[in-house]
Amino acid sequence: MTVSATAGALLGLLADRPMTGWELVEEAGSRVGNFWTIQRSQAYRELAALEREGLCESTQEQVRGRRRYRITDAGRDAYLEWVASTPRDENVRVPFLLTVAFAADIPPGRFAELIEDQRRRHAEKLERYESLRKQLAADDSPRAGGRRATLELGIGYERATLAWLDELPSHLGIDLPDSATET
Fold first, then answer.
1. Cross-referenced PANTHER family, in alphabetical order (predicted)?
2. Average pLDDT over residues 157-172
């Protein structure tokens, strides 16, 4: 059975342990959220569909009335088929690139502010990733290698983005205040 990437990711998380929808979204944010976002509403829709298809099942918790989901044997088979399949091409969506595409219509001072905001965001993300790298260094669990590998791509992406932001004004042929391009 073919499942979507989001459904496959949810099944992969359920393969580790049963979780509520809330816990799944939190775990997804922690484990794959830096490169694949899953909204709560999307997760609950996917979980309902997975349950209808017999790929997971849920039980109502007595305490808070939340549903706890667990993967079924059919779900594990669908997950293993999905995770071993050839991924589709990426669909990169970077909102700031839309701004850059129309940079000629933005006053230079405002554009400098936008670049500075992007630098701050990417520098903060790089700092978080590097901190997480230190935390994962001692992790010897079976999934740690995959987590470290995806984290390294994130670190490389953030470093490349910061370098690109430094070069951006010259690509556009504009002069910006020095503070917008300092590292």
1. TRANSCRIPTIONAL REGULATOR YQJI, TRANSCRIPTIONAL REGULATORY PROTEIN
2. 94
- The helix (run of H) or strand (run of E) holding residue 143 is none
Average pLDDT, stretch 134-147? 87
What is the rounded distance in angstroms from the CA atom of residue 77 to the CA atom of residue 91?
Answer: 27
Host H or E run for residue 53: none
Q: Which CATH code of 3.30.70.20, 1.10.10.10, 3.40.50.720, 3.30.465.10 fits the domain covering 5-84?
A: 1.10.10.10
pTM over cut 0.70: yes
Please check the confidence at residue 5 and state whether its pLDDT lies above 80: yes
* All structural domains of the chain with their residue ranges: 5-84, 95-180
CA distance 108 to 169: 10
Q: What is the pLDDT of residue 181?
A: 45
Question: Which region, left, alpha or beta, applies to residue 88 given φ > 0 means left and ψ of -120 to 50 means alpha?
Answer: beta
